[in-house]
Write a structure and sequence with these properties.
heterodimer; A: mainly alpha; Outer Surface Protein A, domain 3; three-stranded antiparallel β-sheet; 49% helix; 11% strand; B: 304 residues; alpha/beta; TIM Barrel; eight-stranded parallel β-barrel; 18% strand
Chain lengths: 251, 304
């Protein structure tokens, strides 16, 4: 094994001995000095995950989160130097992590937070203007043939849990005590200007968005949404997309 | 490729050169997202800002929005923390290409990286890991710097490290090792005075002697930062380069020593953890500017 491979192996395993060949001027045990690197790596990566998943952290508490994140980091160190991308596998890890069984919605809240970070750094694109919207709405007969492109920041997450309400309660919006986690919610995440929005999509809204994003015309995407949710309300979903700059072109 | 540059020892009385394509001979601070709005609203009188390249290798959004506006008003230094110049494996070409695109986009006055490694086998460890100072490492580091300078089409500054261990395999001291890198590759030096102090304490070597042994004529920028104090297994002081505290008095003293040798030099107040309010960093920058002012006066008097 190469020297750096040995160094890394010892870095990630707290029980591994310090790599051979390290010295200190006073002949002291280099393991104590090597521990500084071990600590820097693990603590900085845990901090990076804590930055990406602040509500996940609040839901389980700092101590639990940091212990869980430490296990994840040792199993899956970053594969990119871009730390904004680190943690893509964290929600799936949480789902399999036995001690979180009592918080079944934790993984989906983490997925929502991952969508927020992606939306924050996603490419810029100009949303449709009010004038373009007015022109489109002035000619209702052409609406079914309308195609839209979604903003690069847009993400949708369907959950069996009340992820939007849970997330909002941790922003001081609403009272956590009044949130029933077992109510399914669908989140729409999009960057409006410089602000990332986390919104609750009405039933079927996710099917509409997926349809539009895959290039379906509005009429077909609406029919698909209505086939999944009998009470699908096109106006409510479409208005939400327009109000929060989630669409970049209408043609 | 090796970039040939004249290699001159530092001397008092060399003329002070300023130009728009170099960092100004002033103090700057690290740019932090928590300060974006306040910087744009108040436009503090500062020499430059420095960013970590990797934080801005994202497609769009608020980081680029604010950096574009700040770059329009201030000189910029881009500081890489993930190129892993000391790695045993080859440089990550995709990363080098991303850096090149970032430099094209923002046209910074300076680009710097570290004498360290942080990646192995496709994994990234988010720390600046230490290197043995031996001929094999020297050749590898120089090859990686040549490749970087060729791809980025510019001279880079290489930062001296803060380290906590030494290697039995080392056959050279750190200062001659760095001097040889600079001689072979033509790169410049980012003199991190805090690192010089931290490593000096950690390996019981005199930081002034260390600094004096570096190729000071090639220093393009200075870093100042704070450290934390720990102890090694024998109870000897072990300083940790945290960038999370105010600059220590001993580091200011060493800075004054370095400026006396260097003349006025662009100086960054580097703070990455426990970020204080902007005015706290501006006050440290003002303190550095006073020292730069003394160095400028001394240099002008010596050359008069």
């Amino acid at each position: 094994m190469s020297d750096q491979r040995l160094f890394i192996a010892a870095l990630l395993d707290p029980d591994a001995p310090c790599p051979a060949g390290l010295t200190a001027w006073n002949g002291s045990d280099p393991a104590r000095r090597f521990a500084v690197y071990r600590n820097n790596v693990v603590v900085s990566l845990i901090d990076a995950l804590a930055d990406t998943f602040p509500v996940t952290l609040e839901l389980v508490g700092e101590e639990f989160f940091r212990a869980m994140a430490g296990v994840f980091i040792r199993a899956a160190p970053p594969s990119s130097v871009l730390l904004a991308e680190y943690g893509a596998g964290f929600p799936a890890f949480i789902e399999r992590f036995e001690p979180t069984r009592s918080v079944p919605y934790l993984a989906d809240v983490a997925r929502l937070e991952l969508l927020r970070v992606r939306a924050f750094h996603a490419a810029d694109a100009d949303p449709v203007t009010p004038g373009q919207v007015a022109r489109v709405l002035a000619d209702p007969e052409r609406l079914p043939a309308l195609r839209a492109t979604c903003h690069p920041s847009l993400g949708v997450l369907c959950s069996r849990y009340a992820i939007v309400s849970l997330w909002a309660a941790h922003q001081g919006i609403g009272d956590l005590a009044h949130v029933d986690p077992a109510v399914p919610e669908t989140a729409l995440v999009v960057r409006t200007g410089l602000e990332v929005q986390v919104l609750s999509l009405p039933p079927g809204g996710d099917v509409l968005v997926r349809g539009l994003a895959s290039g379906l015309p509005l009429g077909d995407a609406t029919a698909r949404a209505a086939s999944v949710h009998a009470d699908f309300d096109l106006t409510a979903s479409f208005a939400l997309l327009l109000r929060y700059s989630a669409l970049c072109s209408l043609s | 490729m090796t970039i040939q540059t004249p290699f001159e020892p530092s001397a008092r009385g060399v003329p002070i050169i300023e130009s728009a394509d170099r960092l100004p001979l002033r103090a700057g601070i690290g740019l932090k997202p928590e300060h974006f709005a306040e910087i744009l609203a108040t436009e503090p009188d500062l020499g430059f800002f420095e960013i970590h390249a990797e934080n801005y290798l994202v497609a769009g959004g608020p980081f680029h929005h604010h950096l574009r506006r700040i770059r329009d008003r201030y000189p910029l230094s881009i500081h890489g923390v993930g190129l892993s110049i000391g790695a045993e494996g080859p440089l990550d070409i995709a990363h080098l290409n991303r850096l090149a695109a970032l430099l094209d986009r923002y046209q910074p006055q300076s680009f710097s990286e570290h004498l360290a490694w942080s990646t192995h086998g496709g994994a990234f460890f988010n720390d600046l890991l230490p290197l043995p100072y031996d001929p094999i490492t020297l050749t590898r580091v120089c090859d990686h710097i040549d490749q970087t300078q060729e791809r980025l089409r510019r001279r880079i500054l290489l930062e001296n490290p803060a380290t906590y261990v030494e290697f039995a395999a080392s056959t050279m001291d750190e200062a001659p090792f760095i001097t040889e890198i600079v001689r072979r590759t033509g790169c410049g030096l980012l003199l991190d005075v805090n690192n010089a102090y931290v490593s000096g304490v950690n390996h019981r070597r005199d930081p002034q002697t260390y600094i004096a042994a570096l190729p000071l004529a090639e220093v393009g920028e200075i870093h100042l930062a704070g450290f934390a104090e720990d102890r090694d297994a024998a109870g000897a002081p072990l300083l940790i380069d945290t960038h999370g505290a105010a600059i220590a008095a001993a580091v200011w003293e060493l800075y004054a020593f370095a400026l006396n040798r260097l003349g006025p030099t662009p100086t960054l107040i580097e703070r990455d953890n426990d970020i204080p309010p902007l005015p706290t960093l501006l006050a440290e920058a003002q303190c550095a500017e006073r020292w730069i002012g003394y160095a400028r006066r001394d240099r002008l008097e010596a050359s008069a």
